[in-house]
Amino acid sequence: MNRGNRIALACVYWAFVLYVFVPLILMILMGFKDSKFIGFPIRSWTLDWYTGVFSDAEVLYTFGYSVVIAVLSTLISVIVGTWIAVLLEGRRFWGRAVTFGLMVLPALVPGIISAIAFRIYARWLGIEPGMGAIVWAHAVHNVPFVSLVVMARLSTLPKSQIEAARDLGADPLIAFLRITLPYLVPAILGASVFCLLLSFDDFVRSFFLGGYEPTLPVLIFAMLRSGMSPEINAIATVALVLTAAIGIWAERFTRRTNKESQI
């Protein structure tokens, strides 16, 4: 690659970085504005909006409610997605292509169509809107992401390790628990964090399937209907910092686990 191409690539890279991070920085700064209106210049600064987030019982409850939904849906999607990945990877059976296609389908359907379909299906099954319906919809939507990540990791597992365990007398379940599952931990963790963030950030399915208790994205949407304010920026900033911290921790833990598995 010549010097001109490297410069062009660097320009594209930094333009993308600015495109992503400048709006986030502006959002964070607006949360410190000592005014109820969004806009520049910021003539005075305050922490009232951020302290208000941690003293607002409704916001704290909604945040906890969203976290519970995200954790429950992630647990379900990880169990089901890992089972499907183990079933599909390295095996040839009649209907495998159909099973794989059905597994991937929830990730390909547009969110609004998926939400409408879930709402109709929930009413047909007699499932009332609320936490259960949201967890169910989020889990179904997240299963494909878990399966694809786990299948990619599973395809690199040395077959000799499984064969050695079987030769030493381990049955399929013991071989899976002692060989396959530890090897899949980095992939499962990465998929779990991804699903956790997807569920926490999901608005459309939560809006269509939610009851009287809104999730955090639905609450922010309801607040936006009365106009943008620094309070919304503060709530979004707190959520951004927490999710970023979880992502950084997961990335470091996954990297450390990968290094340990290679030793």
Largest sheet: none
Helix share, percent: over 70%
| CA gyration radius, whole angstroms | 23 Å
CATH superfamily: MetI-like
Number of domains: 1
Dominant shape: globular
Order of helices and strands: HHHHHHHHHHH
Q: Distance between the terminal alpha carbons, to the nearest Å? A: 35 Å
Kindly estimate the percentage of residues that lie in beta strands according to DSSP.
under 5%
Structural class: mainly alpha
Here the CATH topology equals MetI-like fold
How many alpha or pi helices?
Answer: 11
What CATH first level would be assigned? Mainly Alpha
- Overall average pLDDT: 84
Question: Spans of 5+ residues with little confidence (pLDDT < 50)?
Answer: none
**Number of DSSP E strands:** 0
